[in-house]
Structures are given as C-alpha cells and as structure tokens.
Amino acid sequence: MLHDRLLVEPETDKAERQSTGGLVIPATAAGPKRLAWAKVVAAGEHVRQVGVGDRVLFDPEDRAEVELGGTDYVLLRERDVHGVHTVDDGDSAAGLYL
C-alpha cells in the first residue's frame, strides 16, 4: 500500500437484524445510511493511527472497491476512517477510539 491508504475487508452485513427490543428487521427494510465496520488487511507507510488487524468504521458510500484473489476489498484513505477498534494483546482489553 502507498502513502496513507488502507486496504480493508468489509464485514458481511447480516440479512436480518434484531433490534434491542427483540423485533426482527428484514434485509429488505430500507433505513438511514449506516457506517460499516471492516478489518484492516494492509496499511501504507504514512498511516499513523491504524494498524493491520484493527477494525475501522467507515462510510460505505465513500469507497473504492477492488477484487484480489477472489476476495472483495475496499481501498480507503486514513482520513476517511471515522473510528478504530483495537485489541491489546497484553491484557485482552478492547479500546474504541472515535
């Protein structure tokens, strides 16, 4: 990867979701635009806040898609990331940085 680019693998969206109240929301229900989570596969040399293996929150509308080896990936700039979820191997505590 070059400069401040990130190559991420988007998490698959479940066909049906369940609300906190227990209601099942079908995949065909249109709702507001949502941000999506993805796992970082590769990072450019100038990326400062995100590392390989982190989960990032991004806007699915602002993305460039690429297929490598039969797997779909998304190419992002570091500035397009809205949040980072990292897991520290030392104490297994997760941190969310928005």
UniProtKB/TrEMBL annotation:
Instruction: Kindly indicate where the leader peptide sits in this chain.
Output: none
**UniProt entry keywords in alphabetical sequence:** Chaperone
SMART domains recorded for this chain? Cpn10
> What InterPro entries does the annotation carry?
Chaperonin_GroES (IPR020818), Chaperonin_GroES_sf (IPR037124), GroES-like_sf (IPR011032)
User: Locations of Basic and acidic residues compositional bias?
Assistant: 1-17
Pfam families found in the cross-reference section: Cpn10 (PF00166)
Q: Which domain of life is it from?
A: Bacteria
Q: Where is this region: Disordered?
A: 1-20
The record's family statement is: Belongs to the GroES chaperonin family.
What is the protein's given name? Co-chaperone GroES
Source species: Myceligenerans salitolerans
